[in-house]
Amino acid sequence: MTLISSRVYGNSAEVGGGINVRSDSCATLTFSTISNNSAKKYNGGGLIFRGDYLEVSDCKIIGNTTVLNGGGLCLYSSGFATIINCTLSGNQCGESYQGGGIYIYNSFSEITNTIFEGHDNYAIYESDSDLSNLSHCLFFNNPDGDSNGNFNAATNCVSGDPLFVDAANGDFHLQDGSAAIDCGTSISAPATDMDGVARPVDRYGVGYDGENEGYDIGAYECLFAGIIPDAPSDVAATSATTQSITWGWQDNSDNETGFTIYFTSGTELSWTVADTLTTNTTSWTTSSLAVNTQYTLGVRAFNNMGARYCAQGDGWTLALPPVAPTLSNPTPFSLDVTIGAGDGNPAYTKYAVYCDTMGLWAQANGTLGSSKVWQTAANWGTATISGLSGGTLHRIAVMARNGDGIESALGPAAEARTQMTLTYNAAPCGIIEGDAVQWIDYGGDGSPVTAVPVLGNFFVDWSDGLTTTTRVDTNITTNLNFTANFNPGVAWILCK
Known about the structure:
There is one protein chain. This protein is mostly beta strands. It contains two helices and 48 strands. Helices cover 2% and strands 41% of the residues. The chain has four domains: 2-174; 233-316, Immunoglobulins (Immunoglobulin-like); 326-417, Immunoglobulin-like (Sandwich); 420-495. 41% of the residues are buried. Strand 33 (326-328) and strand 34 (335-338) form a beta hairpin. Strands 1-5-9-13-16-19-21 form a seven-stranded parallel β-sheet, with no helix packed on it. A seven-stranded parallel β-sheet has the order 2-6-10-14-17-20-22, with no helix packed on it. Strands 35, 36, 37, 38, 40 and 41 form a six-stranded antiparallel β-sheet that branches.
């Protein structure tokens, strides 16, 4: 198995949370990160090795956990393992077990130029004696001990703060004054560090000086302050359209030759160079992008001495304004609303529904309110918007927003009327036969109703002057209310 420039992150397994190399196997890991993996039942939070040969170089092994031995790595009854110029930080083994960083059992290993920081229950624990060699390693903040001492040889190791740039946010580059600077060895050291910077970057007067000296401990060489340009900061999208983003950053150096730009969709930065910019540049625009999509930009200042770490930021293109919704199924008090299809936005785009007539926004339960409610078109489905005025032409439009919460303009409105209400009442001494309350679509016709006197009384007329007892109202364009009037006959007393 060979892993180059890979990231093994957030995995979980009973044994070997990130990687499990079984017997009769070989593995090589270079320029890779193994982080935040966990072994839930046995050994090896980040990696367990039980094969014939393992080589790990220019790698970071960060924040892995196990319930047993070997939070970062477990070498268990294996052949031979070489670990060189790696950075191990914040790995944890089980509370009553050993080797927060590395646990070695019945295995031969060479561990060189490697940082061990922030481990519990010994940064390195070897259960057997005289099988492994430890050379030019740095130990810091391992409260239960750096190692249990069962090594064939442990030479030229140092203690001190590695001074990571920002370990809490995953930046394990070295700062000026790091105890790891120039304290490594050239023997078997990789030609470049994890960033591709050529080794060594020697600083005379620090660590070991002389021919073939000046190699730093860990996955990164520390670049000279004041010679290598300082990294940019505050990378962010400063403006966007539906298909472009303009980016800006703070230039923190005065000695760069230019800037290398890395650009990709999503949050995982691609290390393919997208552009190279001249000195003092602080913005860059890219176009022909996808609608409502997240992108990540990396900016690295460089000169002929090299470059520091890459500053990163992310941003979103805008969502397109929605098309008009579909309105259906009117009642006197509600309309069904469906977000219009085909607006060109991705399915995860969220929308808010606005009733222009009422000046209010649709809520998740279909009522109207003063605040916007954002849901995907799928989550809205066909929503019944209630609380509308009856017999009214309503205008309903939709707004979209992108993944960064930036809202589009309202799309075009769709129009539909709630139903008209026909109401027929009977004055004393009469009744209405037929549907006394009718809901009618705009321009539609009602059904027949008849005014019927009771107890010997007489029909007189309707309140609008119509004198026929039976009526059918047609072409209804507004709410109507009619009362049938009756004249008391001999049974007037009973009606009273």
